[in-house]
């Protein structure tokens, strides 16, 4: 028996040389993934004239923070937009994950009488929707959400694709865990809260990451429903800055705009926008990533 175990370990173990090779390959692949963002950060700190003369370089001829200084000319408004985006992302993600998990758990249970109807209801919205005009009318005239922060949260709170992901995840959980909880006298909600949710952290982290990215990158709802400058999210604010720069550059032949257009950091400001828009959301990945590597039911059932 011991000999068989040793042979099995020898078969599945890697030699030191192959271990080094695979580590080098993984490191190179990671570098390829990280390099574009790192290069954008470097370009955002490059002097605009140096960039125009020498092109894109890994080590700029001249460093400059003028792109960020230009972006933070309206520093109070930019920080306000950051606050709105962070609030919308946190509140929207928490509400979305909670409601999607409840909905998906209901339609994943074979004992739920109407699971076929509600499954069809979710799938139908993946194929058809009411359209932009009816949605705008419902949000503004029926729900009266225009110029409120809920106009940035509620329209994106339910997502049929995330519901299907969680339903599949819940159905993959062993029935023995749920049956044993029922034998112990737990109610359906207690089973969901104390048994199912702790085992579903990888699935919840997955849809949580999807919801976080969706809320953070959303600008379209602000374009439709937000006129109050105090409620403009970050992405919409950056788009307005980009539109203002494009207008100045396209009309630089007008009196008074020529000198202003010449002083604008055209390329470096775009790189700074990318850094400002994507930098904070990168911090969310380590939080979600640590749940992906966990086993679903390690140690849950023992024979």
Automatic annotation (TrEMBL):
Where found? Answer: Cell membrane
UniProt cross-references to InterPro entries, sorted A to Z:
MetI-like, MetI-like_sf
Q: CDD domains from the xrefs?
A: TM_PBP2
Q: Which UniProt keywords apply?
A: Cell membrane, Membrane, Transmembrane, Transmembrane helix, Transport
Question: What GO biological process, any one, is recorded here?
Answer: transmembrane transport
Keyword flag rRNA-binding: no
Superkingdom:
Bacteria
For this protein, the parts annotated as crossing the membrane are 20-45, 82-105, 117-143, 149-170, 191-216, 271-288
Domain ABC transmembrane type-1 per the UniProt entry, residue ranges: 82-266
Q: How does it sit in the membrane?
A: Multi-pass membrane protein
Note the PROSITE patterns from the entry.
Answer: ABC_TM1
One cellular-component annotation, GO: plasma membrane
Protein family membership:
Belongs to the binding-protein-dependent transport system permease family.
Q: What is this protein called?
A: ABC transporter permease
Organism annotation:
Paenibacillus antibioticophila
Q: What is the lineage of its organism?
A: Bacteria, Bacillati, Bacillota, Bacilli, Bacillales
């Amino acid at each position: 028996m011991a000999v068989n175990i040793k042979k099995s370990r020898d078969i599945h173990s890697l030699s030191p040389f192959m271990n080094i090779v695979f580590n080098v390959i993984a490191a190179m692949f990671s570098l390829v993934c990280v390099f574009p963002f790192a290069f954008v950060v470097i370009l955002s700190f490059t002097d605009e004239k140096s960039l125009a003369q020498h092109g894109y370089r890994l080590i700029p001829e001249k460093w400059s923070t003028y792109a960020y200084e230009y972006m933070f000319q309206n520093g109070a408004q930019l920080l306000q937009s950051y606050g709105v985006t962070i609030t919308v992302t946190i509140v929207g993600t928490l509400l979305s994950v909670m409601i999607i998990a409840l909905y998906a758990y209901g339609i994943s249970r074979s004992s739920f009488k109407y699971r076929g109807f509600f499954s069809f209801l979710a799938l139908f919205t993946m194929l058809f929707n009411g359209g932009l005009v009816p949605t705008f009318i419902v949000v503004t005239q029926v729900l009266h959400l225009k110029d409120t922060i809920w106009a940035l949260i509620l329209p994106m709170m339910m997502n049929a694709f995330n519901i299907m992901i969680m339903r599949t995840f819940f159905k993959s959980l062993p029935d023995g865990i749920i049956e044993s909880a029922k034998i112990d006298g737990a109610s359906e909600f207690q089973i969901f809260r104390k048994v199912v949710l702790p085992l579903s952290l990888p699935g919840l982290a997955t849809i949580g990451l999807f919801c976080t990215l969706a809320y953070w990158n959303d600008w379209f709802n602000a374009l439709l429903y937000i006129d109050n400058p105090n409620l403009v999210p970050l992405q919409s604010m950056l788009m307005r800055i980009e539109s203002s720069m494009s207008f100045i550059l396209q009309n630089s032949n007008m009196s008074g705009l020529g000198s202003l257009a010449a002083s604008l950091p055209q390329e470096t400001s775009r790189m700074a926008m990318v850094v400002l828009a994507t930098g904070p959301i990168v911090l969310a990945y380590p939080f979600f990533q640590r749940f992906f590597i966990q086993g679903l039911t390690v140690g849950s059932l023992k024979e």
